[in-house]
């Protein structure tokens, strides 16, 4: 999604990938919602849920065998996605280690760390803490559906809003910063209310509940899905704008995913040690907020509208 498209279509390709990617989340929410519709809150999901997941994963593994090698992929303008036919383990290890000294990757670290760090708070302390079993499944349908909408919207801005690629990046990051901050404000309001009402709520929320008691947390969780999509699509676009060659971008995205997974691992442990939800929310808000000026700096200093110059700089 970062190396196959031409430079002016990377946002579109990322949004297409993200929509397909999160269609799995929509189906993954529907399955437990339907199969556990009449089950009590105390019950665990049934065996059919796991069987359905295993079938989808097996099918996906088989379909991956049909992917064309990057060295054989040619863009519409005649350029190849990779000029390297193969690599080896020692070369890759050395090149990956160099990324930890690469100033471009260091500027991405806070965004990479925070991009899955906030999942724990959203899943456990919003969806898990406020809603019952079947409603959590339904909420996830809309959470991942919101991601599809968000990725399409930010992809359009990153590709088509301005002629200058650097300007598109600046506008896109600024917009995500504004929307993201607004969503975290909503999360703060909800967390304050949840903390104050914690002892008075007789039971967890159900989708059949009417009024603001259900609507407010539901809309917030939907917006969290939007935030995840626009935030991660924005970061992938910035990574894709740093180079066009698939070998270089595979290392960049691998670095991003590695830091991202490390952040997620820490976040789950933070929650397991009973850190107050309010503290988790504040940390998440700070981490995402720090990311925006660093990404803006990266776009201003490293992203150019001349693709050839950009490609040469990336390889250096």
Automatic annotation (TrEMBL):
Segments passing through the bilayer: 12-35, 50-70, 105-121, 141-158, 170-189, 218-242, 282-303
Keywords: Membrane, Transmembrane, Transmembrane helix
Membrane disposition: Multi-pass membrane protein
Compartments (UniProt record): Membrane
Primary location recorded for the protein, binned into one broad class: membrane
Entries under InterPro entries matching the protein: MFS_trans_sf, UNC-93-like_regulator
The keyword Membrane belongs to this UniProt entry's keyword annotation: yes
PANTHER family: ET TRANSLATION PRODUCT-RELATED, UNC93-LIKE PROTEIN C922.05C
Protein's name in the database: UNC93-like protein 1
Organism expressing this protein natively: Stylosanthes scabra
